[in-house]
Write a structure and sequence with these properties.
Blueprint (H helix, E strand, L loop, with lengths): L4 H8 L7 H10 L14 E7 L2 E7 L4 E7 L5 E7 L2 E8 L3 E4 L6 E9 L5 E7 L7 E7 L3 E4 L3 E6 L5 E5 L4 E6 L2 E5 L10 E5 L5 E5 L8 E6 L3 E3 L8 E7 L4 E13 L2 E13 L3 E4 L7 E7 L5 E6 L4 E5 L7 E2 L8 E6 L4 E8 L4 E11 L1
Antiparallel strand pairs: 1-2, 2-29, 3-4, 4-5, 5-6, 7-8, 8-9, 9-10, 11-12, 12-13, 13-14, 15-16, 16-17, 17-18, 19-20, 20-21, 21-22, 23-24, 24-25, 25-26, 27-28, 28-29
Length: about 375
């Protein structure tokens, strides 16, 4: 069976392109802040111990938002609001928040990914004269913002290669060594392949139908080898959302314990890890505890969320697919969206008393 649109949207919200209607709504919301307050490292508000590890939680100084990526220099890409002004920012412990400036005709930016050079990619929104269409950008503190036209990148590696969505033509695309490649449907009537991430070796993870109305199969694509289709022992839809420098990929599988007259019975989502050497490792199939991984670092630590009732941030060690809860304030909900090689995890959590989403930073250290 094919996953419902609602289920896919829940699992892949970070990677789906905005529709033009959504772009218009976002343009109204994401107004550029030019007066963002700066802050030193924020205080620790929660902590937990797991064996020899201590995990602490800090919340960045925004009124609302999510931290969506972190690089090995400790720079964090954030989308959020400060004093009523909203947009995309880069935060570090030395200089605090720095707004990402967009072109003179732009009204805001929405960050999607960042590399170890501090380059940020994402979308920005034109003013009324340009139709408020979503346009892509790449930004750095040194070079400023470069417009990418109707191409919305989602992931960037250290070489500046990106993957994302092209509005013209309507397909997922990759920019590698300055050349743009589009990914077309692999069979008549099939959905176009989806691209999720690119690592520093140029390996791209994605998912596609290969037969009409079939399940989504994961792939790894490279310029030299083309498509590689890992042979999965699961009869599920599989999505590999991240791939590290060691060619290890993380994601989730989605399926049903049984098919009923009304469709999928006891749907589940289970975390997955795949390596070229060892193949697949799967978490426990449990329709009452959905798990999915958004990112994995080069040490094999994966981060994501579990969903017993609402989303809760979790991590997995390299040698175990049992989820480890990340601390939140009074057990609040949240998600872990990215992790760097220094074991800094970023995402979001709700913070009392207002319960708004705040950009979260979890730090792992040894006891």
């Amino acid at each position: 069976m094919r996953l419902t649109v609602a289920t896919l949207a829940f699992a892949l919200f970070l990677f789906e392109p905005l529709t033009h209607a959504q772009s218009n709504q976002a343009a109204h919301f994401y107004t550029l802040s030019r007066t963002a307050k700066e802050s030193a490292s924020p205080p620790i508000i929660a902590a937990s111990s797991v064996g020899v590890l201590t995990i602490t939680l800090q919340v960045l100084p925004l009124d609302f938002g999510r931290a969506i990526d972190v690089n090995d220099r400790g720079e964090i890409a954030v989308n959020g609001c400060v004093a009523g002004s909203c947009g995309a920012y880069v935060w570090n412990s030395e200089s605090g928040l720095r707004p990402i400036a967009v072109s003179p005709v732009g009204v805001g930016a929405f960050a999607r990914g960042m590399n170890d050079r501090g380059e940020v990619v994402g979308d920005y929104y034109g003013d009324s004269s340009s139709g408020n269409d979503a346009r892509g950008f790449i930004w750095s503190a040194r070079m400023g913002m470069r417009d990418l036209g109707l191409y919305s990148p989602r992931s960037i590696n250290k070489h500046g290669d990106t993957v994302g969505f092209c509005w013209e033509p309507f397909s997922w695309c990759a920019d590698i060594d300055g050349m743009r490649r589009t990914f077309s449907a692999l069979c008549d009537g099939c959905a176009i392949p989806q691209l999720f991430a690119i690592n520093d070796k140029g390996e791209i993870t994605g998912a596609s139908e290969v037969v009409f109305f079939g399940r989504f199969r994961p792939f790894v694509w490279t310029e030299r080898e083309g498509y590689t289709w890992p042979d999965a022992p699961f009869d599920d839809n599989i999505y590999l959302l991240s791939i590290n420098r060691r060619s290890e990929a993380a994601g989730a599988r989605f399926g049903c314990l049984f098919i009923a007259d009304y469709g999928c019975g006891d749907a589940y989502s289970t975390v997955l890890r795949w390596t070229r050497k060892e193949g697949w490792a799967s978490g426990l199939v449990d329709p009452y505890l959905w798990t999915f991984a958004y990112d994995m670092n080069d040490k094999g630590i994966m981060v994501g969320a579990k969903r017993p009732s609402g989303e809760y941030p979790v991590m997995w060690r390299a040698d175990n697919l049992t989820p480890i809860d990340l601390p939140t304030l009074n057990g609040a909900t949240g998600e872990a969206l990215a992790v760097n090689d220094k074991r800094t995890i970023v995402g979001w959590t709700r913070v009392p008393p207002d319960g708004f989403e705040r950009p979260a930073v979890w730090t792992i250290s040894n006891n």
